[in-house]
Q: What sequence folds into this?
């Protein structure tokens, strides 16, 4: 069975032309922090990587010495995903850049096909452009559909907007209740976009654990990572804790032993998407009674 | 030294050339037409040429030109057809089709017995159960054929597979899975339907086999054979196949290198399929590969896709948009496949390089974007003979055809839709009034737009006589006439699938009529389309084709 049944988290990155998607992708592959990330982009040539970091380049696939791989999605999705499935070792994460008119909701089913599970939908919006774009002939409704699908909105280029992005934020909020993260020069917090290891030290998925509390770098928003102790919980109590997480939580992850369910239960939060699912493939021993959360402090 | 040449005597030669509309014979030498007239006139003019009476009982017409098709029409015949309607195969044999589950099971049992390797997948295609009543095909029906061999039934829509339990167990989803489009039964087990491409991709090995067929030269040979049996001498691949490098080009020229290859192929370059570089670099490449053309393969045209399909609710419509869902909820507009900025950047680069662009525009809003783009490109760079073509152009209004005419554009109208989906368009997608003006050939004529009509094979079966029949009669599958005022004459339809199709492929100086100096590409029919009841146009027998002066053989 492919990767012993393991399913790789899959993030969809949408947003119109000029929203800064490629800049974000560039930042992520340069700051992968040891994660083996596969990025699927419309044009590999647009991924701007130092020559020193390139291990192999065959025109449509770029292999980096840090373990990341950039693939072009020129042909259809099914074929592109088969290329990833052909990798003997599962990557840690897949990040797919949609076209400027890609509607994330229509791509979501692909992110749950063999070997993958949807992690979240992230939509980039240019602070100086989004208000006008949402009314633009031909594509205005597409922009609306993208924002409505977002679990997390990345507001880009707010440093260039005369108002610091306040009009853009208000316009985005007419479409979406997703949290908005302010990002300049694509420098997104990779932990926010790609996710965290589980708070156990022997994470089920990435095998990587970061010391807490984590100091995040220089971001326009202040991000804070916290550990929430859960203690003994039932499945229902865990659900209600996750449901009641405040709106400023942009990422959360946990693998928890519930007192009334046999397999460990996994919690994933990406912006407003909150997923709780049993993981019968994992041992109770790797679970922990704590949840890591990243909050955005405006 | 050239061959002496030969005179093909026919029951009648219909030339579509106004100088000599009809004749007894056509003289051919070195693949070109020497002249048209009586046997006596030909001999008086060109000497004592041999007279070939092989086609003496046939009516000869210019070979049909299918200006919008896909080579999938050849690839898919790597497997057997299991559709509802009888259908000709590339071998010229008519399959009777499957009119019941029993027919399908009998076909599968026969094919299962023919396969030696017990793990080899059994694939059939074209299955269409809409006339079978309410019962749905499921894994349990297929399991009676084999509990070990994977079986995959590809439905006519190409958006649905039904697979058996052996296949689901091989891929590990027999007990259900999280992928959207994999329905489960009361017992929690997957019933065997894989709905839409993400779910269909769960049949991993079968999907790989289908893609493999697209890159197989044998598929192009079957495509040409399919063209032959329906009377087409030139067929196109409208940008669904990559032409991004030498290997891609060689697939086409290599497959068609053989003299016996039964049709000319025109594959269009799609910049969205693996082309690297700036718009100007891609346009330069589109020009450069013209030199890679051969007598049977012509490169140099471009195809782009702006929106989706009307029956899939993904075409971009102007207000009032799609009819609501049956429960009254609004249907959203369709999808764009390219950003308007990217489209115009590519379009203008091709236009500047004098490369003709064919653009898929099903919905009327997509047509507006195309017209705006052509208008801007022409304002920046003057090129009178551009022949930019709106493909499908199904919901195009009279006002849009007027703009198209002023901009010097061509149209290629998807007339087959009227038969295959006309009833659904009237009741489900756009309603009776807009359905009545779909695929509006007569309006295009009235407003002065030159056009062809097409099958989009394998979306609908390849066959210019059937496509003509659709444009002439506008009869739906249920037998109603959709928009009778948009019907056109047999003569107009015949020109649409010959000389006007050739025009938008920039080949009208070479093919599309029977006249001296053009390529000797003909179709031999059992009856003259002008003489028959228009309702039986589609039933005229195709005797054979002639490509480059050679009578094609199966």
A:
């Amino acid at each position: 069975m492919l990767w012993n049944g393991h399913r790789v988290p899959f993030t969809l990155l949408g947003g119109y032309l000029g929203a800064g998607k490629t800049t974000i992708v560039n930042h992520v592959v340069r700051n992968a922090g040891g994660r083996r990330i596969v990025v699927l982009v419309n044009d590999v040539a647009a991924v701007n990587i130092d020559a020193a970091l390139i291990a192999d380049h065959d025109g449509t696939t770029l292999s980096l010495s840090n373990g990341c791989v950039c693939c072009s999605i020129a042909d259809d999705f099914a074929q592109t995903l088969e290329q990833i499935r052909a990798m003997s070792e599962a990557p840690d994460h897949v990040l797919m850049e949609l076209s400027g008119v890609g509607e994330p909701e229509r791509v979501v089913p692909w992110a749950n096909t063999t070997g993958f599970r949807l992690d979240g939908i992230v939509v980039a919006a240019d602070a100086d452009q989004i208000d006008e774009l949402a009314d633009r002939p031909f594509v205005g409704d597409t922009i609306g559909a993208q924002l409505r699908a977002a679990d997390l909105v990345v507001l880009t280029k707010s440093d260039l907007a005369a108002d610091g992005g306040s009009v853009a934020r208000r316009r985005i909020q007419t479409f979406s209740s997703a949290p908005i993260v302010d990002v300049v020069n694509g420098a997104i917090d990779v932990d926010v976009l790609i996710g965290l290891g589980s708070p156990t030290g022997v994470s089920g998925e990435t095998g990587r654990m970061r010391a807490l509390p984590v100091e995040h770098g220089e971001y326009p928003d202040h991000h804070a990572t916290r550990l929430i102790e859960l203690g003994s919980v039932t499945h229902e109590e865990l659900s209600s804790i996750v449901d009641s997480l405040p709106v400023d939580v942009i990422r959360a992850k946990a693998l928890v032993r519930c007192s009334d369910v046999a397999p460990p239960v996994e919690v994933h939060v990406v912006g407003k998407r909150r997923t709780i699912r049993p993981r019968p493939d994992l041992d109770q021993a790797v679970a922990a009674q704590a949840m890591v959360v990243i909050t955005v402090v405006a | 030294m050239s061959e002496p040449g030969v005179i093909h005597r026919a029951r009648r030669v219909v030339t579509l050339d106004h100088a000599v509309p009809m004749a007894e014979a056509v003289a051919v030498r070195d693949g070109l037409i020497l002249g048209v007239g009586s046997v006596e006139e030909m001999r008086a003019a060109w000497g004592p040429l041999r007279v070939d009476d092989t086609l003496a009982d046939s009516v000869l017409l210019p070979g049909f030109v299918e200006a919008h098709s896909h080579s999938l029409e050849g690839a898919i015949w790597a497997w057997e057809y299991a559709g509802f309607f009888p259908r000709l195969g590339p071998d010229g044999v008519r399959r009777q089709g499957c009119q019941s589950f029993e027919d399908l099971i009998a076909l599968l049992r026969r094919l299962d017995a023919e396969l030696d390797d017990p793990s080899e997948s059994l694939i059939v295609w074209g299955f269409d159960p809409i006339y079978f009543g309410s019962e749905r095909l499921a894994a349990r029906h297929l399991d009676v054929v084999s509990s070990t061999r994977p079986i995959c039934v590809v439905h006519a829509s190409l958006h649905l597979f039904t697979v058996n339990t052996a296949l689901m167990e091989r891929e590990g989803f027999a007990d259900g899975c999280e992928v959207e489009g994999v329905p489960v039964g009361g017992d929690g087990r997957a019933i065997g339907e894989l709905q839409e491409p993400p779910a269909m991709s769960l049949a991993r090995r079968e999907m790989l086999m289908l893609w493999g067929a697209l890159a197989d030269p044998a598929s192009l040979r079957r495509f040409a054979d399919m063209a032959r049996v329906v009377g087409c001498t030139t067929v196109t691949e409208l940008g669904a196949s990559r032409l991004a490098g030498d290997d891609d080009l060689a697939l086409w020229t290599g497959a068609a290198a053989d003299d016996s290859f039964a049709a000319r192929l025109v594959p269009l370059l799609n910049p969205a399929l693996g082309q690297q570089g700036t718009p100007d670099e891609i346009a330069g490449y589109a020009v450069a590969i013209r030199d890679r053309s051969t007598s049977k393969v012509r490169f140099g045209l471009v195809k782009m896709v702006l929106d989706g399909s009307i029956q899939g609710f993904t075409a971009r419509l102007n207000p009032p948009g799609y009819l609501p869902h049956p429960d009254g909820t609004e249907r959203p507009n369709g999808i764009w496949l390219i950003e308007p900025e990217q489209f115009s950047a590519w379009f203008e680069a091709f236009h500047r390089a004098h490369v003709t662009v064919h653009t898929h525009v099903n919905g009327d809003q997509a047509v507006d974007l195309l017209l705006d783009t052509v208008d801007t490109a022409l304002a920046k760079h003057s090129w009178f003979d551009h022949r930019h073509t709106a493909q499908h152009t199904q919901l195009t209004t009279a006002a849009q055809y007027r703009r198209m005419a002023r901009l010097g554009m061509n149209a290629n109208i998807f007339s087959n839709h009227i038969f295959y989906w006309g009833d659904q368009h009237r009741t489900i997608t756009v309603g009776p009034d807009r359905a009545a003006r779909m695929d509006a050939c007569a309006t295009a004529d009235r407003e002065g737009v030159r056009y062809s009509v097409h099958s989009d094979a394998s979306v609908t079966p390849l066959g210019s006589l059937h496509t003509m029949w659709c444009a002439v009669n506008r009869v739906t599958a249920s037998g109603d006439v959709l928009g009778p005022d948009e019907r056109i004459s047999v003569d107009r339809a015949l020109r649409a699938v010959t000389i006007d199709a050739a025009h938008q492929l920039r080949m009208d100086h070479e093919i599309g009529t029977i006249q001296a100096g053009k390529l000797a590409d003909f179709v031999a029919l059992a009856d003259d389309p002008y003489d028959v009841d228009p309702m039986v146009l589609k039933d005229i027998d195709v005797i054979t084709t002639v490509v480059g002066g050679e009578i094609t053989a199966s």
Notes: DSSP finds 19 helices and 23 strands in chain B. The radius of gyration of chain B is 24 Å.
